[in-house]
User: What shape does this take?
Amino acid sequence: MTVTYTACVANARFGGFSKLLLLWRGSIYKLLWRELLCFLGLYMALSAAYRFVLTEEQKRYFEKLVLYCDQYASLIPVSFVLGFYVTLVVHRWWNQYMCMPLPDALMCVVVGTVHGRDERGRLYRRTLMRYAGLSAVLILRSVSTAVFKRFPTIDHVVEAGFMTREERKKFEKLNSSYNKYWVPCVWFSNLAAQARREGRIRDNSALKLLLEELTVFRGKCGMLFHYDWISVPLVYTQVVTIAVYSYFLACLVGRQFLDPEQGYKDHDLDLCVPIFTLLQFFFYAGWLKVAEQLINPFGEDDDDFETNFLIDRNFQVSMLAVDEMYDDLAMLEKDLYWDAAEARPPYTAATAFLLRQPSFQGSTFDITLAKEDMQFQRQDGVDAPLSDAHGDFLQRLLPVGAGMAAGGLLGRRLSLLRCKNSSVSEESTAASCACAGAPDDAAPECSCGDALLDLGLPEPESEPHTGREPPAPGPPAEPFTVVPMPWPRGPAPPWLPSAIGEAEESLT
Assistant: This one.
């Protein structure tokens, strides 16, 4: 059974993993204690022979052998080959679990596309999901020893209710020497096509959706078969195993404590028990045991997949979904927050502190800038306010003439745009002012620029001299004639902001 300890490590705290170190089922101690005792027993036997059995001449030869093994044992790249191997095995182990055929998506499509509250409609839905469950059972009994022990023959599958006797005859009549786990998926497709012809599936789009989900389900069954068929290359497994065991065979000799009186380098202390060598064996050999357990998760180890549990769960929930829950809806009611402007579910006393925490607005929300750093700058690099650029843009868009008077439509829009943006310079809008063509004695009565003067904007700077002669003045332009339009006024031009249009309505 799978060892689950997720709740024990829900919160990180001091010594949070300490309670996990004492677990036995699924632990590294359960996997490694035999190998560790064998290694320690062989080490102590060699140590006792060196101390009490060998002669002085034999001891000198054994000491040379110890120094030799200790020097060259580090040439074995055990950590390199073992690290890549375990990474490969763990990645493969998780991918195999992701390929477990779960019927949840398929049963939701079946209950939503195969209609009919009568007995025949119920028979269609239950049979479709039974075929899906039968396909999963057939592939799992082919790859999992636990499932094979539960269903050793097809007769056991028939007695369990996954297959009828008539279906068994058709299954065995099909002459194929290959694994026939895909046969129930073909039956599923044929039955779905028949339901479409009878109108139980109302359109081809629903049939297409149903067959697409079946294809996903069948693809996962096929991937389990391929994972069982194509193993990790044997040469890689052999290289890793030989590297680990040869390294620790060398350590049996090379890590022996020698007589300090002989004056060998790094042999000044005699502890008899190699504590750090045992820890190294525990880590490296334990790493290899992890790969040994995860390389085939369809066995009966502590951390192998619960295949029989998944078969029971999938069969039960799929039948409940397509049978008892078909067309089963609760009465529609207004939710608790129907009239609430800001819906927020309540908090318990244990979680009330979360209400005092501000919501996350973004990682740049708390950044502060100096006031001068927040000023817009011109793109051409000229050190001038951005309001001049706005004025030049407006000057290019609006026509120039007497028709731009304050009483005209465009004149009113220009005045509103001045007040809205407060960034159009007097120089850029002087040509469109209603007083542009008036005599000097009428200038004091002009109020077109009052909006800009009241805002206290700075005087615009003079244009830089470009070295070009100004164009010769041409004949005076004919004044525009404002003609009232009898039809309703259309929408504002797209280049004007929507706020101008709203303010213009108030003027009319």
